[in-house]
Write a structure and sequence with these properties.
Blueprint lengths: L5 E5 L5 H8 L4 H10 L2 E5 L2 E5 L2 H17 L7 H14 L9 E4 L4 E4 L1 H13 L2 E5 L6 H14 L5 E6 L15 H20 L1 H10 L2 E5 L11 E5 L7 H8 L7 E6 L13 H8 L6 E5 L9 H11 L7
Parallel strand pairs: 6-10, 6-11, 7-8, 7-9, 9-10
Antiparallel strand pairs: 1-3, 2-3, 4-5
Helix pairs in contact: 5-6, 6-7, 7-8, 9-10
């Protein structure tokens, strides 16, 4: 029987690589858990000793088991620890963790990290219109492209259309040097990178040549109606209300749309209001529409990204 305020946890099966991923470099992940949960964690191999208040021990046990499970499928970063900690604070200590949600693209399997990403993937697979809204690195566009390529490969849709507003060029691309592709490519590079990851560069090039995948600036969508297509509008915070309405009314028979953006990164000239914010207000509660809102703790980039986003969200005390 464990002494009061102290209990043991043994993680199975024994796997030294997974244990190292769980603990982090120089046990940094364990120290982070200690700091946030208010308890002490000691381990000898796969046997952990948890010392502290009962509620903290209960949360630590759940988190260690969850993180050890995650370490079987991917490397763990500080952002994973922070995300699970934040989710636990939002939802309390009770309840069971959701089963992992995977997206099987032609080239690799993608794992949704956390409840918000899992709910977003489910919405992308089931709703006619899904919004993914939140800060940089939270997987909004990445997961939308992953789901779209998976559904395209399964024959659910005939085409994949990826759209971005070219705000930096005022969507008047004529003055830029080069042909059409050279003018548009800089704004669409993140989408090309995702496609290359999920399909491979050669298959991406073939799909673009065949027209199975189309990448276009928003300005070129006017007047079109797209049927049997999965359409993604990226960087939607840089649309006007008129442009957003134009995009949303391009949906044809058998089509589905995903809209991604960050309401804190609007590049529109003032006092123009973002079409993303306008659409979120107008379409709230509308049948067939789902909104996923991400937090800085969902960021999957360098762990510093989540801390940077939080720093910019805090009000400044005054001039530097």
């Amino acid at each position: 029987m464990s002494a009061p305020g102290r209990e043991e946890l043994e993680l199975r099966p024994e796997d030294n690589a997974r244990l190292a991923a769980l603990c982090g470099p120089l046990d940094a992940h364990l120290r982070l858990l200690e700091s946030r949960l208010g308890l002490r964690l000691d381990n000898r191999g796969h046997r952990f000793v948890l010392a502290g208040p009962a509620s903290a021990r209960r949360r630590a046990r759940r988190l260690l088991e969850r993180l050890y499970e995650m370490s079987e499928r991917s490397l763990l970063a500080e952002s994973d620890i922070l995300r699970l900690l934040d989710e636990g604070e939002e939802e309390g200590d009770g309840g069971e963790d959701a089963l992992p949600v995977r997206v099987l693209t032609p080239r690799r399997q993608i794992l949704a990290r956390g409840r918000r990403q899992a709910a977003y993937v489910a919405a992308l697979e089931s709703h006619d219109l899904s919004f993914g809204v939140g800060p940089a690195g939270t997987g909004k566009t990445y997961l939308a492209v992953a789901v779209a390529t998976a559904l395209l490969a399964r024959g659910v849709f005939r085409r994949l259309v990826l759209v971005r507003p070219a705000v930096e060029a005022g969507e008047r691309l004529g003055f830029l040097p080069g042909g059409f592709t050279e003018k548009v490519d800089p704004y669409l590079r993140p989408i090309y990178d995702a496609l290359d990851e999920f399909l491979g560069p050669e298959e991406t090039a073939r799909a673009l040549e065949r027209g199975t995948i189309e990448i276009s600036p928003l300005a070129y969508m006017r007047g079109r109606t797209l049927a049997q297509a999965f359409i993604i509008l990226d960087e939607a915070q840089n649309t006007t209300a008129e442009q957003m309405k134009m995009f949303l009314t391009r949906l044809g028979e058998g089509s589905r749309a995903a809209v991604t953006g960050d309401e804190t990164q609007i590049d529109l000239p003032r006092p123009e209001r973002s079409g993303l914010a306008d659409a979120l207000e107008r379409l709230a509660g509308l049948e067939g529409v789902h909104v996923s809102r991400f937090r800085p703790s969902d960021a999957q980039r360098h762990p510093l990204v989540a801390r940077i986003v939080r720093a910019y969200e805090r009000p400044r005390d005054g001039p530097p």
